[in-house]
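Appendix B. One record, verbatim.
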Amino acid sequence: MGGQRVKGHPFVFWSIIILLTSIILVLIALKAPIIVDEMSPSAPPYRHFDIKPSYTANTSWPIKINNDGGRGVSLIETNNGTALMAYGWGEINLVSSSDGRNWSLPVELTNMETSSIWPLYPILIQLDGGEYVIIFEINHDFPGLYMLRSNDGLNWSAPVKIINNTNNQATHDYSMFQNNDGNVVVSYADRKNGRTLFYDSDDLVQWRFFSQPPIALWDIYQKKDGSYVALGFEDGYYIYKSSDLIGWKKNGTEIKVEYIPKFLLTNDEDYLVLAMRYNSGGDVFFPPDVLLTFSEDGKNWSKFVEIIKNVESHVAIELVQTDGGELIMIFERDSLQLITFRMDNLVIDYSK
């Protein structure tokens, strides 16, 4: 037996060597950087956000603005940092706030309401020189866009009609903004005929018609590079881009949802879209939920994230961003109400 080999010893020896080698390789791998191919379908989302209330103590969530509701809401942060909001459904009212939590009583600006005249859907902006401008429409009997002007936000002009509505149908699909040249641009989306009418003015008195692209467009913004982006509808909702407000090109994939009330280009030029989810199979009179989807390029969209449930109406939705980055959403639920949130750490899911 002295010279007899014991079966199995070589196997045990090499097993131990392989085990030690594996442990060493694992330790080396743990110290190595992990490289993720961002073009790979398995790559993680490239942006993370968190939607949460940004209030401090002693505030309610949401904040109540008025007692009687309102449709067609337009909110701005003025040059002096206060909040000014116009809303209307039969009259155009104005409220203000210095902190976003305590709001003034509404002041009626139009004094036009009769059985056949109903001012609707105001849009409020402040020009670079400080002047405030509101445009709004009136119901079917008096189609077109009307304008109010004020130098101080307190004293307002009488309404003046600036644009005729050629489709003779009331709609809130219009936009107003001041472009980089200082001119004020007004667009009017004619969904009935699948087009958008563009006008501009350098004095708010004479208006020049200059473009009629065959797409219904609204929520139009001018980017820092001078180009334009808008939400549009053409067999579905898409973001559109233009260099001159004349030629428009579809940008990316369809935003698939039942109804979109608001598109916002953020301070960082990211794209946010609010959409409605009707829990009754598309019945627009059933209280919907408000959802949000996000894109960095207007082409690839995240899955929808629920912001708030059971709002009263899709036409009272407003979404703006303050200079400090806070997002403010207005909605109607018996009264006009406000929530604020920041997008900091919530994971936005880009998977299909």
